[in-house]
Design goal:
- By secondary structure, this protein is mostly beta strands.
- Helices cover 4% and strands 42% of the residues.
- It contains 3 helices and 40 strands.
Length: 591
Amino acid sequence: MNYLRINQKSLPALMLIAIAVVFAIDETSLGQSPQRPADEGETGTTRSGVIRGRVVADGQPVPNARVSLTSLNGQWRSVPTENDGTFQLKGLEPGVFSISAWAPGYASVPIDVDAGEHLFRIGDSVTINLIRGGVITGKVLNSADEPVVAVRVLATMIRDANDKQPRIGASVAQSSDDRGVYRLYGLLPGTYVVSAGGGQGSEYNHAYDYDVPKYAPSSTRDTASEITVGSGEEIKDVDIRYRGELGHSVSGRVTSMPNPKSPFGVALWRVRDGILEVDKSTSQETSGGGFELHGVPDGDYDLWAHSSSSTGESAQSEPRRISVKGADITGIEMVTRPLPSISGQLILIDSQVPECKGKRRPLFDETLITAQFNRRQPARGQTQLPYFFTRPAAPDKAGEFALRNLLPGQYSLTPSIFAKYWYLQSITLPSMRSGAPQSSAAPNQSVDGARNWIALKLGEQLKGLKITLAEGAASVEGKLKLPGDEQVPPEMYVNFIPAEPEKTDDVLRYFTASVNSDGGFTLSQIPPGRYFVFARVQNKDDLETKANLRFPGGTEARKKLRRQAEANKKQIELKPCQRIMDLELSLTQLN
């Protein structure tokens, strides 16, 4: 059986992994293409209660794929696709939905954590693109050329199809059959290393779980063969010469500050060059017992414990760096403390401007608050995980929200709203926080949570944060005019920079939009005011991308763009609820 490495004992480890990624709303579809209703953002109409779509691979329908839908307000649906790849998800209440598809032998388009997962609403039409998976197959034999039966074989991606470090862990596992043959299918295009034995995740007490992993052809991880596989491609004869070499054990005991009777998960990882190359986990039922990990090769590792309660609150210990060199390690003591949380209120401010009358208000059920982790600077002592997941929060009917089970570190909050004539006005947090470092602000003065990172420690609960949305946003559609038949350069962006001196340091007044191949561009949810506007070529990996430009860490990028904008001099004034459909920029504005 071919499966992703998810099992009962490894779920606590997966819960720990599932911390801190961006579920941002972005026009990048990540293989999923929404089509918004024509009246989007206006007064609004009755929603149909249905999301329709199609699952395709290489443009062809994928029949009998399983399509799953989940939402923050507890809705869940799962339906198969028809012979033409179409599906309907019915009976939906208003909300924001994540939709995925699975089919044997196929793989999902990887999530770009910088762009975020694309999310959907009732009435959307969705196209989900799958990739025909690759195959790696071979045999596991011992030194006497005899088959090694029922040993777990694992393919771990080390580079994606673009020869870049994978941002999301991708691995597929399968046990060898009675001939020693394994066949790993449904692989994303990329480069892999293949290993056998060693537990490969949580411990099942299989015969080979106490051994160290052996990599194809018969080596340690440092000298493992690298196998590149494309979509639908089969790579044969990736054989592994297996030598049953016992690994070492790592053992100790976990206790908990809030709940000493809680069961614990214990994870041991080794991350090299941002890639998770060793992943072991086990459990400890209560604090009166202990834990023991087996089959650990020599090397340096990060070790930590984690737990969750019936209320959904999770706890974690501080990471421990350990070094295994030729002997077992015993007597490790770890203490878990609650993971940090952020809670607050979403506030809506209506406009009295006549042009804004009758416009659609944001619905709390269709609003997401996400905490974006500063991966460039984790908290001191915090392991830099190679990938992250977390769930955003949706406000309740009173606008109250809570982001729970966050990793220690720095965060920037982003609300995502589906109301065209509303914009993010401010994010403020109290200057005095329990368990937090002393703020430079006065005791009764709030702190700008958009301009400054929000730093969290284990055990800290940040309360009283306020996110204010205001009615009156403007939107702009336009086109970049080029002379003759000249083509739009790649990585061309249009930038809106605040022209009013008092708004220079307002992070929420900086906007960037990509220019389409036909020269068109769109910006929305812009606060009214005066802006410098110009087009330029930029690198997507720069801090000057749309997401990072509005991050606290984008100070230098904002200064650089402002200098260019002031030299360019072209300005535009946007009025409340104004919609500009024909803004034209010429090549003379290109810097």
